[in-house]
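ugh finaly. both done.
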Amino acid sequence: MEIRLQKIIAESGFCSRRKAEELIEEKRVRVNGRPASLGQKANPDRDTITIDGEKLNTKSRDKHVYYMMYKPRGYLTSMSDDRGRKCVSDLVAEIPERVFPVGRLDMNSEGLLLFTNDGDFANAMTHPSHQVPKTYRVTVHSAVEAEQMVRLSEGVELDGVMTNPAEVRIAVEEPGRTVLLITITEGRNREIRRMCEAVGLEVARLKRLAIGPVRLGMLKPGAYRELTGEELDALKRLAAKGAAKNRGRRS
């Protein structure tokens, strides 16, 4: 039976479906020796699929696992780096299953990061259509004016496209320093930092506190633990609810 290539890659536990799409677009995926194209289908039981020349093990079906980590600053949200920089893969090397990060936090950001080998779960957590909220503690080097708060809340233009409305409130206000709590439902590259820059705010520190109902809590930098069954169920319900709501808007 032929299945979309990005789904095969995600179900193998190699990476998320969105990352698989990126790999295909970058021409790093081949099917039976030929460069793959986005939307292409393949038979995982018959076709040979390679990524960067390495054969994809489509017959392995590890049990799905789900972890949360406190990503420290100074680590790339990547499983490898050709420039030798520290990657989050260094911190999860003892996990028996092959896992990958769900979404990303930039190198200078810290906080809650999920890991899994379940491509469908990763897609549900990161795709904007599922509207899974993510909350950040954002420290800026100045006071924040009411107009800036309104612009962040209503959405700002990034790369010609408006961001979704965000929840924004002030947690700490001191001379020369303000701490904001910002909740967004998208996951564009460096979105929070770029939103702040767009309204004239310089981010000094950025920490993700929560993804949906799952909070960082007392986890220490570099530490990780498995999600509880209750946490996992709550995330899946939230993503399903967001997707249904988004479909209702389009119909």
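ok and the 2nd:
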Amino acid sequence: MPKKAKLSNQGQGSEESAYLRRTKPVNVRRGTAAWARLIARWSVQGLVVFGLVFGAQHSIGRYVEASPSFRFGAVENCLRVSGLRFVGESAIRRIFESEQGRSMAAIPTETLQVKLLAMPWIKQARVLRVWPSQIWVHVEERQPVAWVRKVGSADFTSPRLVDRHGVFLDPTRDFDLELPVVSGLDDGMSTAERLTRIALLQDLMKELGPERAQVSEIDVADSSNARVLILYDGDVVELQLGAARFRHRWEFFHKYVRSWKKKYGRIGSVDLRFQGQVAVRRVDS
């Protein structure tokens, strides 16, 4: 009898534990109304945050516009310019004079950048606000590669410059540039033709290296034949160097020029374009 009682108690405990145990979590499904309330709560919270941020920005913007500490002052003190070599800083300052006294937030940096790019010498420009009251302007100027003699002009009283992109540049002030004088370029030719002739000029100067300082003038009127004027033993000599192998033809001239002078006397021009054949023209005194 005691054993039966013990077994009966064990069975009752087993039934109770099986009844109280939950083997899987209960899935609670939200209805449409619950989801709508949740979305509405999130939307309200988002609108509150947006309103706070917008209000803070608006307040800061009004403070910046009204505060004297955030006003652009005199260009002499508040404008910093870098990258200048050929353009005078006074020309840059004139563009910013109308902005003196304005709030830094109201200064149209993009419009000012467009005005800078309209200047012939300026290739690239950046206008940056330096808070609280300064502006920094950094420019990249065009780099001239030669002085240009006007087509059909025998004198050189009004020289101008040209960069590697074929843009003509008028000197803005007096400066000393050791660049070759080039003829055969003008405004009337197409951009493609002008670039071809400038490329011929640059290839020639690159191959000659330091000896390019001996070149007085380069004629690129014929894009297939660079004509170079040099001063040799007191005589102006024209070298026709073609469109390639400039260094080889230059060295060939200097190797044999003395023997040619002994044979022909004063030399006016030498055509070095053809392999194994040189045409030497003497100067009739």
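summary for the 2nd one i guess: The CA atoms of residues 2 and 8 lie 10 Å apart.
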